[in-house]
Amino acid sequence: MTCGRPRRIDVIGRAHQLYEWGDPDRPAVLLLHSLAAHSHWWDGAAPLFAARHHVIATDFRGHGGSAWAESYRFDDYVRDVVGTLDALGWRSPLVIGHSMGGYVGALLAARHPDRVGALVIVDMLTGWSDEMDRRARAQAERPPADFPSAAEAGRRFRLAPPDTTAPRAWLDHLGEAGAVERMPGIWQLAFDRRVFLHPPPDPWPFLGEIAAPTLVVRGSESPLMSRETAQRVAAAVPRGEMREIAGAFHHYVLDAPDDLARSLLEWEATLGAAER
Length: 276
Hints:
By secondary structure, the protein is an alpha/beta fold. It has nine helices and ten strands. Helix 3 links the parallel strand 5 and strand 6. The mean pLDDT is 95. It has an eight-stranded mixed beta sheet with strand order 1-2-4-3-5-6-9-10, sandwiched between helices. The chain has a two-stranded antiparallel ribbon with strand order 7-8. It has one domain (5-138, 193-270): Alpha/Beta hydrolase fold, catalytic domain (Rossmann fold). Helix 2 crosses helix 3 (100-111).
């Protein structure tokens, strides 16, 4: 998998890690990762966008190489994204978000309609149960696992939910790229476990406020976003539509990066010469 060019910026007094692909003179694309993930989840798909775009993936606060924080509300992530756009000098890029990144992208488009030229929501969670809350709190309270090396962190890395068609080598890459050496010989996954203590996701009150053209994408085998829910989300957004990728699970950023990129680029081409 091809990693982007690393770049660090200051956002509201906090260090944020970015990765960059493509020519800065091309139309801008911002990639937003999922919960407890990091920007390297886009390493398979980002180069496919870079032939026609300037692509940047950002690590959310408390994830990857970005600094930890005391609060992990969705509004916090949105504020950070606005600060990132300001630091980059970007006005209204195409924003593509997977899972939690899709939720943050949707909230960004609703709260700051002038900062999103077009939006792609990839397999977003739209509800929250007591059981989900219980599991999230258990994850937050679980001590981080220790590994003797980044490579071992990669070998032991597993997805949640676990279903995927991605090669094992890609999962090794994600675990290794997402590990940091906390002390000599002790490696841990980089994210702050408190990121699981986010508020319950509830996009329905703000989906109707999204003015940007919006594509809702799901994998046909995803257990997190049903076809009916994806259709309902697309219908709630004034300029929304839905597409489904056959044979892909929730992690189809990994399962089918070629199909995902091709589908999104085809959709973008239908939008015409929209200003970024």
